[in-house]
Design brief:
homodimer; 418 residues; nine-stranded mixed β-sheet; 13 helices; elongated
Chain lengths: 418, 418
């Protein structure tokens, strides 16, 4: 058991939680937070510190250069200063715990290089993905003799809250976005959440753990679709299908060794493990050769769930001296994922023979149709047999050229069977 | 990373799975199984061993006395010989991985004493509870800075298969028991499964991990009710309530430090995380101060799920030298658990004024009634407000003395809200 003198970067929601959880069991947990670095020393904080143990600083280097500090906790976010701090701390042999998924997803390979060059360096990041769910620890330890075939997660509490409101109360997108902003769940600029960028960073991290390699090139190459185009109509159809709609990140191992990683809204049938994940909850379903499907669910964000994951990392690092460098094998991406798809296709006006034309188009693209539903005069819903993303894209492009096509784009998403 | 020369006890379903998973990655995993001890060397096995590496023996001591073997895997079951083997191996400094929940639940305190007396001894038992779900590892590492308030699990695949069949197909208990026996899910003598004894051993182990102590006295003091009295009528009522019925083990921390541990069938509302766990699946819901409710679900039994947990333990032990003795603080039990209850009460004949008399009885026992339902002429269903087990037992005893009472006993169980 290593004793930790901790320097913490960040004094916000999560930082306050970490301070409370560590200090209420100090010193019996062999840990104490001796310095907290924040940008603005004058900003009011919502937690009290014991001045006889803990001091505040605005100088990041005063922690890095303090040899009495052997562990840093980075909960300030950002990918600039945070990167310098983490790399420097690792090189100095300080244990590092971070909640920074954006930094990890963007600079994974550089961090792995630092870890490999410093075999005693230790980096833990349970809090970076899915708040309080110990999914990182689970992927690192429960599947070592197994082969994971897919990881599918609801990893963003903001959008899951919004989709739950739309499903349960028939609310419109703009209305639930305002509600989420009012509650502090969504940012003033909600792009990172609603366009799926946050989920993308997380599924990149999960896929690298699950398949033991790293994704070469930027995260921008990952197909990423958010929820901003989902309407009440989609939920009406989902209800007809005994299903709901969730924003999911998926990483699937394909035949031939490629990995398909993508972010998309999905129709999730009632009996699927992800269907009942409501509000700000998160969940990850891992499918593997030995275990079949396992689901891990819990709170996706918030002060204490996220702080709890930081603290669990601290206990683990304190108990162990294992190095944490991951495999640096490259993973080859296959963006052309497959499945049964839901397509909502807008039509301009009442028109005879639409179903026949859809059928001909689908056949030309090799897409089998399971059912065609019509709920309003302004659109059609098509459920496909298993096919590939590229086939669906081709079909939608062709449909848009037909004389009955409406002005809006078609919307499609995969169906997760219950 | 310690290299493991493994001696395995047991060559059955799980043993064969462990052999395959270890040997297919040997020697790159630094592990090999060099001896397998079985009772009957002539019995046919459903897996092939490589005779140049692995030999068979019927003599348990030939593994214990072999100094080249530094790790044993015990997957033979039983609480007699298995206990001697595990204790001797620990004393000799061999790492031990076992899947034997009955042994652990019955002899926990003795094993903890051996661990304490031998600080280098290492014992891991992920496979003992909930097959492939890494619930032991999760409880040991994800909640170190947290306070668990309850653990509720579906921990027995056989009974969950039976209850699922009864729910989905309206089948009778006797019929699904025969079906489960035909499929090899249930034993010829199904007592351990259907009367909840298997769940009892598992919830004892989970409660000791969750609350960091050990239950003093035998497992017989744990209130334990199985599923053998559940009828189609109960499922008819459950459907009216938009719920199903599950056999659950629960361990809840009470005010004042007592712990309430019990096994019972429960009405589980549709939206509850446990409602959708079907067939031979298992799930554990952990409620804690920092995380709220987290659910961990996966396969509860079977060759590869169970073997995968054994193998995950081997990887963990190989990577770490942490001792595994748990706290030996005693936990004080409170068998009088509380909740909203479902009561099905048989009546002898049509009779006026029954609801009034039920109301008077309930009032005398301080039990609030939420609703009274009547589905057939032969029984009533009562849903209570939150109350204690002892109050429900008292109410049922009083109802049995009324002139309208039928011959059968009342059946009651708690309701898990969705």
């Amino acid at each position: 058991m290593t004793s930790f003198n901790i320097g913490m970067y960040g004094g916000g929601t999560v930082g306050g939680g970490v301070y409370e959880l560590i200090m209420k069991n100090s010193p019996s947990n062999n840990m104490k937070i001796t310095k907290i670095c924040v940008r603005d020393l004058n900003k009011p904080r919502d937690f009290q510190v014991d001045g006889s143990i803990t001091s505040w600083t605005a100088d990041p280097d005063s922690i890095l250069e303090d040899d009495s500090i052997n562990c840093i906790v980075e909960v300030m976010g950002g990918t600039g200063l945070a990167k310098r701090i983490i790399e420097t701390a690792l090189k100095k042999g300080k244990a590092v715990v971070t909640a920074n998924k954006a930094l990890l997803a963007e600079h994974w390979n550089e961090l792995q290089k630092v870890l490999k060059a410093n075999p005693k360096a230790r980096l833990a990041w349970e809090a970076a993905v899915c708040g309080g769910i110990p999914i990182i620890q689970i992927l690192q330890t429960a599947y070592q003799g197994d082969e994971i075939s897919s990881v599918t997660g609801i990893c963003n509490g903001t959008t899951n809250f919004m989709l739950t409101q739309m499903f349960q109360h028939g609310a419109a997108y703009d209305q639930v976005l305002k509600e989420a902003q009012g509650l502090g769940y969504a940012e003033v600029d909600p792009t990172a959440d609603v366009e799926g960028h946050d989920v993308r960073a997380k599924i990149v991290l999960l896929s690298q753990l699950a398949y033991g390699g790293s994704i070469v090139g930027g995260v921008e190459q990952i197909p990423c679709k958010g929820i901003s185009k989902i309407t009440e109509d989609d939920f009406a159809y989902a209800r007809l299908l005994k299903a709901t709609i969730k924003l999911v990140g998926t990483a699937r191992r394909m035949e031939g060794g490629k990995v398909s990683v993508y972010v998309t809204p999905a129709i999730v049938e009632e009996r699927h493990a992800l269907a009942s994940i409501d509000g700000a909850g998160n969940a990850v379903v891992v499918e593997s050769k030995n275990l079949g499907a396992c689901a891990y669910t819990g709170p996706g964000a918030g002060r204490y769930p996220t702080a709890n994951s930081v603290v669990a990392d601290l206990y683990r690092l304190s108990a162990s001296t294992t190095a944490a460098a991951a495999s640096d094998d490259a993973l080859t991406l296959d963006p052309n994922y497959a499945g049964s798809f839901y397509i909502r296709f807008p039509v301009a006006k009442k028109h005879a023979g639409i179903v026949g034309k859809i059928g001909v188009c689908a056949e030309q693209h090799g897409v089998g149709i399971r059912s065609v539903l019509k709920n309003t005069d302004k659109d059609f819903c098509v459920i496909t047999e298993d096919c590939q993303l590229s086939q669906v894209e081709g079909l939608c492009a062709d449909l848009a050229k037909q004389d009955f096509a409406g002005n809006d784009e078609a919307l499609f998403m995969p169906i997760l069977s219950g």
